[in-house]
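Supplementary Methods, section 5.1.

A reviewer requested that the exact input to the structure prediction be made available. We therefore reproduce it here, unchanged from the version used in the analyses.
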Amino acid sequence: MSDNVFTGCIGIDLGTTFSCVAIWINDHVEIIANDLGNRTTPSWVAFNGNDRLIGEAAKQQASLNTKNTLYDIKRIIGQQYNDPKIQEDLQHYSFKIIPDNHDRPLIEIDSDGQPKTFKPEEISAMILYKMKTTAEDYLGQKVRDAVITVPAYFNDSQRTATKNAAQIAGLNCLRIINEPTAACLCYGLHNKTSCNVLIFDLGGGTFDVSLLELNKGVFEVRATSGDTHLGGEDFDNRLAKHIQDLFEKKHKKIITPDNSKALRKLKEAAETAKKRLSQAQTVRVEIDSLYDGIDFNCQVSRSTFEAICLDLFNDCLEPVKKVLADAELEKKDIDEIVLVGGSTRVPKIQEILSAFFDGKSLNKSVNPDEAVAYGAAIQGAILSKSDTSGKTKDLLLVDVIPLSLGIETTGGLMATIIPRNSSIPCEKASMFSTVEDNQSTVLVQVYEGERKFTKDNHLLGTFELSGIPKAIRGVPKIEVTFKMDANGILSVTAFEKDSQISHQVTISKDSGRLTEEEIQRMVEDAEKFKASDEIKKEAVEYRNAFEKYLRTSQTTVNDSEYEEALTLEERSYANQLILNTLDWLNGVDPNTDEPIERKKEEITDCKQSVEYYLKPLVNKVYARQISIAALKQDEEEKQPSTASQINAVLNDYNNENPQEKTHNVVLKKKKPEPTSQPSNSQTIKQPAVVPEQTKPQLRTIKSHPQPQPPTIKPQAIKPEITTPVPVTNQPPQPKKIQLKPKK
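The structure derived from this sequence is encoded token-by-token as follows.
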């Protein structure tokens, strides 16, 4: 091989069961065959003494060297050992997997009698190296750059691990692209029409569905969904278990899990039978010396295979329904359904998919085994600019993010800034403000997920914005901007407009992003718990509105310009009532030190009670404000309109009919009818304004018992103070508080 380096870029489909390599050369894509002449290579690695085998050679000796033959590594890479899916898969592996100190899986083999461990990235790197040397043998040049495909629902940890594997293999990974997107590039290279294309990619170990809009060379991903633990391997495992049950029933012998050689033979027989059942109605399975020297043979029909895997086949429709809902399209809006992946050859899957789309014909124009590598090679030609024909110059790929991105606001609510399935790269901003007077620092917490509350979503990172000029709550304008680039790296910036202070944090693929299962669970939970989330959200919003009312009332009654509107006792009473109510509203469970979640009904009752006693005092201040303004004008000419102004303001504040409440306007003293205080069991229906002659007696506010729901209704709460509480204009000390949306 010459020392010169190939200036182009190869495309690699790193599959769970098979891998494929392609290249753009002579103005077209060429699928490169391996040293045995096969266009796909098994993603298998085996260690036999000092020898390392990759591809067909590793798979052929698997039954003789089960514990040192490695496969399905794609299901392990970038995952945590204690992940439930990994634990479920352990029973199907003939080799040993152990956790490291960080709970990441390690693969242990027997090397000359001594245990030796490998990381999943190392094994994937060996497969990538095989693809690299295959391309180099074909080109006669060294290969440096590559585009590698991954499932659309691979999380950032899995994508990063794949890039690390490429680096170990001596490859410069120019781009990681999604497998369905690559397949659509394959389909759309020679199809320049405008249409909606659904890519149904069911491979050996992963399943992806993407809905793309093609418009004259622009490939825009509208929505994506999938399952990284659903594929042909799962069908093989079901069929192998069925054959095992037939053997055990016939020969009254149990094949134990530690008999890896027998299990390997069953798996190989099941895989062969599955492939043959795509063409025949019945196949005969023959296994020599399966267990204890017993030869076993049986017949398996296509209907039996479909029956034992029917639930898995039906599971393939859920991501299809999800992408249609996310893209806001109906089944009739889909122009083409393109099948990708070897498992789409199963007749029952094609039948179910076609029936779901009301008998629509499925597009089988692309090779399901080669389409992904084909598209990766096209993307490689675009990135390396190695296409001299101009066929790819008008192609543009627009991908999407799998989960919504946002920040936490008051009450633990998730304020979404970039919704899921937004096209990337993208940049979006929202305006927020403070929740405390003179607040100088805000804490910005970045989350991803689909739930209404951040506690149900996944934290990506936090940062502080300090030095905000002191001002009344709600006045500062803080703009939070999310920017996602083409490589999936998120930058978050918070900017305070008056002071021009800003702070930025970058959240990259190494920041502990979610696993695919967590993403799928979040999407499913968002639907499952949508109703309860809405109830909680409504309670939080109602609580925030009540707190805002209390703080606004506090500012009003303490306004020094109109201090003569209230007596010292009245002002102290109002302040004590507000402070006690805020303490109840922000109460903490003494047993758990956790904030008490008040129900909407509790808050409604408490608000009704507090307004009954607080509104008369606030109304006095408002009346005084209007009276002072009116005195500045000619009293004789303006007196009638002044009265109507007072009535309008008070009635708007009380949200009551002006015609019914005009007698409550404080224009002149009028002796009211005596009223009685409400009891605990009564619903308050008192006038909104309490006359001066019947001021409420001051009593200590009662706290609700914890942790049980309160038995005393909040409307019965009345404050009691023996001495006037001094009113202070000093604001509370600034503290780090979550942002709330700017109204």
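Residues 509-515, 656-737 have pLDDT under 50 and may be disordered. These observations are discussed further in the main text.
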